[in-house]
Amino acid sequence: MLIVTSLDQAKSKNEVNENNSKYEEHNNDSGECGKEFSKVQKNLAKVSQVQKTMNILGSAVTAIKPRNDDSFIDRLNYYYSTVIIMVMSLTISAKQYVGQPIQCWVPGEFSKAWEQYAENYCFVHNTYWVRPNEDIPQDYNERINKQLIYYQWVPFLMALQAVFFYIPILFWGAINRMSGLNVPNVVRLAECAADTEEDERSKNITAICTHIEDSIRMQINHRKTASPCERVVKFGLYDGSFIRNMYIITKLLFIWNLYIQFYLMNLFLGQNSTLWGASILYDIATGKNWEYSGNFPRTAICDFNVRVLGNVQRYSIQCVLVLNMFNEKIFLFIYWWFVFVGILTTGEAIFWLINTQVLNRRIDYASKHIPLSVKDKKLFQKFCDQKINTDVILIFRLISMRTNDLIVSDVLQMLWSIYKTRSHLDSVSIASNVENYSDGVKYTSIEKYSLNNINHRYNYSKSPQFLNSPDTDSLIK
Known about the structure:
It is a single chain. This protein is mainly alpha-helical and 477 residues long. It is 68% helix and 8% strand. The chain has helices at 2-63, 72-97, 112-124, 140-145, 154-175, 183-194, 198-225, 228-233, 242-269, 276-286, 290-293, 323-357, 359-367, 377-386, 390-402, 405-422, 445-458, 470-475; strands at residues 102-105, 127-128, 147-148, 299-308, 311-321, 434-437, 440-443. The strands form three sheets. Strands 1-5-4 form a three-stranded antiparallel beta sheet. Helix 6 (183-194) runs antiparallel to helix 7. It starts with a helix and ends with a helix. Residues 1-11, 425-449 and 457-477 have low confidence and may be disordered.
C-alpha cells in the first residue's frame, strides 16, 4: 500500500514538473515572439518615417521643371544639379533610417539592450578616427580634433544644397518680368512657330516682332524723361540692357553658389585641402588604404560612459561606419560635378557678356541671318545699334537654343523689313524671303504680313501697293 502511494506521488510530481517546463517553454516562446514583434514594429516605424521623407523630397523633385528661357548650362545648375543631389539625399536617408548606419564591437558582457544603446549613442554623438598603428589619444582635446562630425547630417546637407542650387533661377524668373520684354512668352511663341504651318508661323513671328518693337519704343520713351542717375540705378532698364544684365547676374549667382558650396563642403567634411577630390582619386588609383589616408574612414572609435553601482565607467569601442562607403562615392562625384559645372558656367558667362555687349559681335550675328546688299550695310549698322540691343540679341540666342536658326532668321528679317519701311525705303530686299521672277518681285506671306501689320499699326502710308491685296488681307483676319 505504501509502495502504491509513493508511486502515485512520484507520478504527480513528474506531471507537475512537465507542466512547469511546458509553461516555461511557452513563456520563452512568448518572450521571443514579443521581441520579434517589437523589432518588426520598430522596422515598420522606420520604413514609415523614410516613406514620409521620400514623399516630401519626391514631390519636390517632381515640382522642379526646366524653363524655356535658359541655356543648357543653366539647366546643369538649377535642374540637373538639384535633381541629382536630391536623389542622392534620398538614397542616404533610406540607408540611414532603414538599415544599420553604424555597427559597434562591444564587450562580451554587454546585453542586446546595451549594444543597441551603445550604437545609438555613437551614431548620435560624434566618433573619432585613429590610424591602426596609433594608440587611442588620452587627451580629450586631441580626440575632439579627430572627430567625424558629418555623417549624421549628410541627407540634410544635400537637401540644403539642392535648395541653394535652385535659388538663382527663381531670381531670374522674377526679375526678368520687370522689363518690357517677356522672355518666356517670346521663346514660347518661337517654339510654336517652329511647329506650325506657314500661316500660323507668320502670325507668331509677327507677334514676336511686335512685342520687341513695343518694348524698344517703351525704352526710348522712358529714356527721354529719365535722369542719368535713374538710368544707372535701373541697371539698363531704359537702355535695352536690363535683361542681359540680370542674366549675367544670374550667372554670377550660379558661380557664387558653386564657390560657397564648395568651400562649405570642405569645412563640413573637415578637409584641410581643397584638392581632396584629386587626393581621393589618387588613393583609389594607387590602391592606398583609407585606414591610413583618413578620407571617409569606415571604422572609428566611440567613447561613452556607463554608470554602474554609483561608479562611472568609460568605454572606448570600435564602430563600423557603413554610411561612409556611400558618402565617399557621393561626395567625390559632387566634388568633380562642382568643378565641371563651375568651369562651364564661368566660360558661358564670359561668352554672353562679350557676344551681347560688343556691337561688332551683334552686327556679325545679325548679318548671318540677313543677306545684305552693299547699299544697305550702313543702314544695317544703324539698325543693329538702335534695334538689336543687348536684350534683343540675348533673346535671339535663347530662341536659337530652344528652336532653330530659321526662326531667328525670320524674326530678324521681319524686324529689318519694319526698320527699312519706316526709314522710307521703297523696296524690301531680303534674299531669303523674296523670290525674283522675270516680271518683277514676288513677296512671301511672312513679308506681306509684316508690312501689312506695319500699315495697320503705324499708319504708314508709303507701304508697297501689294499690302491691299486679297492674299494679304486673309492673313490678318
